[in-house]
Design brief:
With 219 residues, the chain is an alpha/beta fold. It contains five helices and twelve strands. Helix content is 18%, strand content 36%.
């Protein structure tokens, strides 16, 4: 099993390039998903894998890829899955079950964002963990036991995506112990991180954590 993380540049709005330039890409397996190739080029990065149908990528960038360095998978224009779903499936087939960081996957069209997060939930068991991130927030589907290191006063919500979840929260302003929360409930909206380490234990079901990098005024 590969030891290095995988970083995927999806086809959504990239968000702040200032933020993207602060990330460490050294040693990571880099994946460009269609339009994501343009984001990588802007950052001076070359992908290890390109996946896409080419409908939103600059043709010169695609033609200029070094096929000796980059595996290029061209998808048909008419298909039943998104480019990102095809990339996830291919990574699983390749045996890349390490941590997955998805950039440029939250901004842009709301429908794309919602489908991207559902895709992450469906594939959560296939990877060590899956994180979507931009300059504003960090989003992760969570199951089982999770130790987090959110900055104090970070506003964080846990959205149930299964019919119901049972979870415990420690290291937050509002603690929970074996609480059963139905999908659609707002009980786990806008909690606040406390201390240096937080514990989220999902005894049953799956939640999507949304942590806002702009700190909350709630103390």
């Amino acid at each position: 099993m590969p030891a290095v993380p995988t970083i995927v540049f999806a086809g959504g709005d990239s968000g702040s390039f200032t933020y993207l330039r602060t990330l460490d890409y050294a040693g990571a397996f880099l994946v460009a998903v269609d339009r994501g190739l343009g984001v990588m080029a802007e950052l001076g990065l070359s992908p290890d894998l390109f996946v896409g149908d080419g409908d939103s990528v600059i043709p010169e960038l695609l033609a200029g890829l070094d096929r000796g360095r980059t595996r290029v998978v061209i998808l048909p224009a008419h298909k039943d899955v998104s480019d990102l779903e095809a990339a996830f499936d291919l990574l699983v087939t390749m045996g890349r079950h390490d941590s997955l960081l998805v950039l440029a996957g939250l901004g842009g069209r709301l429908d794309h964002c919602l489908f991207n997060l559902q895709l992450a939930v469906r594939h959560l068991a296939d990877f060590e963990d899956i994180t979507f991130e931009d300059d504003r927030c960090l989003v992760r589907p969570l199951m089982h036991s999770n130790a987090l290191q959110l900055l104090p006063h970070t506003s964080v919500s846990f959205v149930p995506v299964t019919r119901e979840v049972e979870l415990s929260l420690m290291g937050f302003e509002y603690l929970l112990s074996h609480a059963v929360v139905q999908r659609g409930s707002t009980r786990t909206l806008s909690n606040v991180a406390c201390g240096l380490v937080q514990q989220v234990i999902v005894e049953r079901g799956t939640v999507v954590m949304i942590a806002w990098k702009i700190q909350s005024d709630i103390s």
